[in-house]
């Protein structure tokens, strides 16, 4: 019996010696950055080391995580890090590895994210999404932004089911992505500068800087809900799309961004519908929301423009003119608003010309013809200052130039006609 025990002890000592020898060899390869060779050595010694004490297992997983990260085998790097974390590494790792271990998770996470950034730049969007999820799952509280970016990568990779899964998860968590931003004004230049929190704490009391303030980034929540709704629309699930965005509106009823996203949803549903009644129904819902948005944000010229488009579509030309005019008042260089306003004004021209062409040669008809001619010219004269204002902000706008040229031709302003004609020829 004594002989058996001795043999067992000898075998144990041999194994311990072999494990130490293998770990020293791996350590040397890692120090010299021979990553492929270190990986081969790890594979060769894996069964030997993992059958031993925790302190040797901990070293194995440490080296395996580090080497796998260098070789961009991120799944294995994270798996080995997770196994290491279960082995009380602060007690089982040698002193020289303890400090490096404390940063190992951050190093791996940063490597994974940087690789995902490169994938996105190279249009490998689904690979990027997979890596961002790896980084997110390493610390779901701290790295929640990576779930948001993974959803965006999945959209770009056209895996809408996957992106929907991520966006719904973000919505259910109430994720906003809002962070504080720090600003100080440089007294010498008078320019406000964005700085880090550390710089802010240093500069806010400096004589060289003034007006310290803390702002916040915009919430990502409206965009997330909008994307959920758009994916549902693409999948033909309009009811789910409406339910998603209405749920968000209930949470943030006065959020203009969410309101506009709901309005945008109705326009998309309307445009995708082959049913005239459905198209009108959703366009009216859009119109109602635009009116509500204007109440919440009365200085937003784009809202008036959008409402003008719907009024024009539905033949409410007086209201359309009013909204386009208000859009121009708020955004003086709003080219599309000018063009649409002119188009609405000229809507009446068709009926005038049709009636002029239908008249005979009687005295009564000739009088009516003259009345209609004046009425038509009045429409043109109403458009002239608008087109001239438009050309002040957009001098090369061909649509405006051609329209103004034709108007000058009808009004008999030959000098202005020739001037605009020459301008068009110069541009073409």
Provide the descriptors you would attach to this structure in a database record.
428 residues; 21 helices; mainly alpha
Summarize the structure in words.
The protein has 428 residues and is mainly alpha-helical. It contains 21 helices and three strands. It has a three-stranded antiparallel sheet. Strand 1 and strand 2 (192-195) form a beta hairpin. Helix 7 packs antiparallel against helix 8 (144-156) and helix 11 (221-234) runs parallel beside helix 13 (256-272). The chain is elongated. Residues 1-14 have low confidence and may be disordered.
Describe the main β-sheet briefly: 3 strands, antiparallel
Say how many strands there are.
Answer: 3
- Listing every helix as H and every strand as E from the N terminus to the C terminus, the arrangement reads HHHHHHHHHEEHEHHHHHHHHHHH
Helix content: over 70%
- β-strand amount: under 5%
**Helical run tally:** 21
The main sheet orders its strands as 2-1-3
Structural class: mainly alpha
Mean pLDDT: 90
Radius of gyration: 35 Å
Residue stretches low in confidence (pLDDT < 50, at least 5 long) are: 1-14
Principal-axis shape equals: elongated
CA-to-CA gap between the ends?
106 Å
List the helices and strands and how they pair.
Layout (H helix, E strand, L loop, with lengths): L1 H30 L3 H16 L3 H17 L3 H12 L3 H4 L2 H27 L3 H14 L5 H13 L3 H13 L7 E7 L5 E4 L1 H7 L5 E8 L4 H14 L3 H14 L4 H17 L3 H21 L4 H13 L3 H14 L4 H11 L1 H12 L4 H31 L4 H14 L2 H14 L1
Antiparallel strand pairs: 1-2, 1-3
């Amino acid at each position: 019996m004594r002989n058996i025990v001795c043999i067992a002890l000898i075998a144990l000592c041999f194994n311990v010696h072999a494990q130490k020898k293998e770990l020293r060899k791996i350590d040397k390869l890692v120090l010299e950055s021979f990553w492929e060779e270190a990986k081969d050595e790890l594979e060769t010694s894996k069964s030997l080391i993992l059958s031993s004490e925790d302190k040797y297992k901990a070293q194995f997983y440490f080296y395996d995580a580090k080497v796998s990260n260098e070789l961009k085998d991120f799944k294995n790097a994270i798996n080995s890090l997770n196994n290491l974390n279960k082995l009380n590494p602060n007690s089982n790792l040698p002193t020289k590895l303890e400090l490096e271990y404390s940063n190992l998770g951050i190093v791996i996470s940063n490597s994974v994210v940087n690789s995902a950034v490169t994938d996105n730049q190279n249009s490998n969007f689904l690979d990027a999404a997979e890596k961002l999820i790896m980084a997110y799952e390493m610390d779901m509280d701290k790295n929640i932004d990576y779930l948001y970016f993974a959803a965006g990568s999945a959209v770009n990779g056209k895996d809408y089911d996957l992106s929907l899964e991520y966006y719904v998860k973000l919505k259910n968590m109430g994720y906003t992505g809002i962070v504080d931003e720090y600003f100080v004004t440089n007294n010498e230049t008078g320019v406000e500068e964005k700085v880090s929190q550390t710089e802010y704490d240093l500069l806010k009391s400096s004589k060289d800087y003034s007006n310290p303030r803390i702002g916040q980034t915009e919430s990502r929540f409206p965009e997330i809900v909008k994307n959920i709704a758009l994916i549902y629309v693409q999948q033909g699930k309009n009811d789910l799309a409406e339910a998603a965005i209405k749920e968000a509106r209930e949470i943030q009823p006065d959020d203009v961004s969410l309101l506009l996203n709901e309005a945008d949803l109705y326009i998309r549903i309307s445009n995708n519908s082959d049913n005239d009644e459905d198209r009108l129904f959703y366009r009216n819902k859009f119109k109602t929301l635009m009116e509500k948005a204007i109440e919440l944000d009365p200085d937003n010229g784009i809202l008036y423009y959008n409402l003008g488009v719907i009024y024009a579509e539905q033949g409410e030309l007086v209201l359309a003119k009013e909204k386009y005019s208000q859009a121009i008042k708020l955004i003086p260089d709003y080219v599309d608003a000018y063009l649409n306003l002119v188009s609405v004004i000229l809507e009446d021209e068709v009926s005038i010309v049709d009636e002029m062409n239908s008249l005979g040669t009687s005295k009564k008809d000739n009088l009516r013809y003259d009345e209609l001619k004046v009425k038509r010219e009045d429409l043109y004269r109403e458009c002239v200052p608008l087109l001239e204002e438009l050309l002040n902000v957009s001098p090369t706008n061909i649509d405006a130039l051609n329209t103004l040229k034709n108007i000058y031709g009808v009004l008999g302003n030959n000098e202005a006609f020739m001037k605009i004609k020459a301008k068009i020829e110069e541009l073409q």
